[in-house]
Design brief:
4 strands; alpha+beta; four-stranded mixed sheet; 55% helix; 215 residues; globular
Length: 215
């Protein structure tokens, strides 16, 4: 199996085990809202664009709320999760581009479910998946961190490091140190739930913690 298929199956299992109203790391979302997001993202990509296109945000939120409302009972929720668990057809971009667009997405949302109720141990990640997550992380981190004035250096336990954000005038750089999966969560805005050390000037470190932590 490809990693996006493996992570899809793992996420579907986590959603099923949690039930429709378990908390997640996504502000305001229970597991049924997260499942609805995944379905809309994959099966209605024009609406899924509302994540980055403000004019579509209202329609995206409405679609998610509608699907989530129909998944409050066990049967409705099981059907919604099954829609996500069923892989898209081979011709779908979500199939042939799955390794590029879905591995990190599914990994992060799996942790949204696993950590929604409170702190848990870091997930053990196979080396091959770790390398895939790292390559995607260092590619997208500069864009995700573009609004930070503080510079950011990511450091893995094996000593591999990458500067992904240079500091602006008046700021220094901080080091985010942790396992690759934990760094992925931190850069995605879930630093409060990640096992990551933030090292650097106290003011700069506080700025990074605020910018990368959810509510």
């Amino acid at each position: 199996m490809t990693w996006h298929a493996t992570e899809r199956a793992r996420l579907a299992e986590a959603l099923t085990a949690a039930g429709p109203d378990a908390p997640t790391l996504c502000a305001g979302w229970r597991t049924r809202h997260l499942a609805a997001h995944l379905v809309v993202r994959e099966q209605a990509p024009s609406l899924g664009a509302g994540v980055v296109v403000p004019v579509l945000t209202g329609r995206l939120d409405e679609a998610i709320d509608t699907l989530a409302a129909g998944a409050q009972d066990a049967d409705g929720y099981a059907a919604l999760v099954e829609r996500f668990a069923t892989p898209p057809p081979r011709w779908s971009p979500m199939s042939w581009a799955g390794e590029l667009v879905n591995v990190t997405e599914y990994f992060v949302h799996g942790e949204d479910v696993r950590r929604g109720a409170g702190p848990v141990a870091a997930r053990a990640v196979p080396d091959e998946l770790r390398d895939r997550l790292w390559s995607q992380l260092v590619a997208v981190a500069p864009l995700r961190l573009a609004r930070l004035g503080v510079g950011v250096v990511l450091v893995r336990p094996d000593g591999v490091r990458r500067r992904v954000r240079s500091p602006r005038a008046g700021h220094g750089a901080v080091v985010l140190r942790g396992e690759v999966g934990e760094l992925v969560l931190a850069v995605s805005g879930r630093l409060q739930a990640a096992h990551v050390q933030v090292e650097g000037d106290a003011t700069d470190a506080a700025h990074v913690r605020e910018a990368l932590s959810g509510p």
